[in-house]
Write a structure and sequence with these properties.
Layout lengths: L12 H9 L11 H9 L9 E5 L4 H14 L4 E4 L11 E3 L2 E2 L2 H20 L6 H15 L4 E5 L16 E4 L7 H4 L3 H8 L9 E3 L3 H13 L4 E3 L5 E7 L2 E7 L4 E6 L6 H17 L6 H10 L7 E5 L2 E5 L4 H14 L4 E6 L7 H8 L5 E4 L10 H11 L5 E3 L3 H11 L4 E6 L2 H12 L6
Parallel strand pairs: 1-5, 1-6, 2-5, 6-7, 7-8, 13-17, 14-15, 14-17, 15-16
Antiparallel strand pairs: 2-3, 3-4, 9-10, 10-11, 12-13
Helix pairs in contact: 1-4, 2-5, 3-9, 3-10, 4-5, 7-8, 11-12, 12-13
């Protein structure tokens, strides 16, 4: 339980949550001035934290989950900061698998609110993400975590999380995303993500091509050693009953690990996580081989290549960009090729719709277009018109909501059919709540 400043009255939870949500209207405004000022007024809670900082396009959330799980198995108290959430806001701020409570959330908002309101009066309002980042650092400090695994929100260089000086930086693969903000090509995006590299802090990266070159240049300028992860460093040895086994080459030895997280690309995510943990080991952090194996086996990441039902078989994956959709398609082709695939699809309108659709269509026997409750969701009729333009013979249905789309899919599936829900984390989050009847109010 946290404690607020002596002269600050704790807000009721719903008032605190409504106040925070009122800042979503500001959207993304990159820059470190606001978050730096906000944290200074709060006593710079991040400065005492030992942090692993993770950026990249796809896979960074999974890498964060693996690292956090490994450190927990080693007996450490670990904070985990992720975004966005799938079902509950509280998924964003976690300590040892315990999501932040409503009580602690309200307490921390009550502490942060006076500072934010003063900034608003100066026309210097922080954004929703900046406020949440401050809440996370405060929570981790109050919980006295041993380590904090922090995922970058957007880009890297001007992301609110980039106020930290970590023990190790991780940059996963880099593909085109958020081109309206980060740049129109891989080089520009890589430069933004390489902005998390700090002087003399080791970097682990799975980047290739132009991105590899740029990250290498920035690391060299900052005298930061780089550990490169490439496909030769891991191999999948088996996949059966929702469990995969990999052999991963570390810096000094091979690891045989198992994971319930699906897709061959998990080999790369695991290799990145192991390399990051090895850097911690070399810095004196005690972690055993068994901790690594058990941590990887225990790690889960809801809404990402997740099976939530066996009858009918339902797979959720929040692929929302071309690279993520390509990974999903590869997994469907490799591990679910004997299933007829009914795709439930909902995509946000600011995404690369044409590429996403053209990628998923070849493996879709039936597509049910729908939309999440997010105001940025694409009109299903628009998506249907685009699909018909690609393939006039493709079987496509339109449903106004995700529950209706799932009910439709359940009505038409047969034995050995697969329902795959994808296109957006918002789509997946609503589907997960509907299928599992989980609580989604915080």
């Amino acid at each position: 339980m946290c404690s607020t400043l002596k002269d600050t009255k704790t807000l009721p939870f719903q008032d605190a949550y409504n106040w925070l949500c009122s800042f979503e209207k500001y959207g993304w405004i990159l820059g470190l001035e606001r978050i730096t000022f906000l944290l200074e007024q709060l006593g710079n809670p991040h400065q005492g934290l030992r942090i692993i900082h993770v950026a990249g396009t796809n896979g960074k959330g999974s890498v964060c989950k693996y690292i956090s799980s490994i450190l927990q198995k080693a007996g450490y108290r670990v904070g985990l900061y992720l975004s966005p959430h799938v079902e509950r806001f509280s998924e964003r701020i976690v300590v040892n698998n315990q999501e932040i409570s409503q009580e602690d959330f309200a307490c921390l908002v009550s502490q942060v609110r006076p500072v934010v309101e003063a900034m608003k009066k100066q026309d210097n309002s922080p954004t929703f993400f900046e406020i949440v980042t401050a809440l996370a650092f405060l929570h981790f400090k109050k919980c006295s975590v041993d380590y904090a695994v922090v995922e970058v929100g957007l880009g890297g260089r001007f992301d609110a999380t980039n106020v930290v000086t970590p023990l190790v930086s991780v940059i996963t693969n880099i593909t085109l995303e958020h081109t309206d903000i980060l740049g129109k090509n891989i080089g520009s995006i890589a430069s933004e993500k390489a902005g998390i590299i700090k002087d003399h802090v080791p970097v682990v990266s799975g980047a290739v091509g132009t991105a590899l070159v740029i990250i290498g240049q920035v690391a060299s300028q900052r005298h930061a050693p780089v550990i490169w992860i490439d496909p030769t460093m891991w191999i999948r040895t088996s996949y059966e009953d929702g469990c995969q086994e990999f052999i991963v080459q570390g810096s000094f030895k091979e690891y045989i690990v198992q994971t319930s997280m699906l897709g061959q690309h998990q080999g790369e995510n695991i290799a990145l996580a192991i390399a990051a943990v090895e850097q911690l080991q070399m810095a004196g952090v005690y972690v055993t081989d068994r901790d690594i194996q058990e941590g990887i086996q225990a790690a889960t990441h809801p809404g990402r290549m997740e099976i939530v039902s066996a009858d009918p078989l339902i797979l959720l994956d929040g692929a929302h960009n071309p690279a993520g959709m390509s990974m999903l398609v590869k997994t469907l082709q490799e591990d679910f090729s004997n299933h007829r695939c009914v795709v439930v699809l909902g995509v946000l309108k600011d995404k690369d719709l044409k590429t996403i659709l053209s990628t998923i269509m070849p493996v879709s026997d039936v597509i049910i277009i729908t939309k999440s409750c997010n105001p940025r969701a694409t009109d299903p009729v628009v998506l249907k018109e685009m699909i018909t333009a690609f393939d006039v013979d493709k079987t496509v249905f339109v449903e106004d909501s995700i529950p209706q789309a799932l009910d439709h899919a359940r009505r038409i599936v047969k034995n050995m059919d697969l329902i795959c829900v994808t296109g957006s984390l918002f789509t997946v989050g609503e589907a997960r709540g509907y299928v599992l009847h989980t609580k989604t109010d915080f």
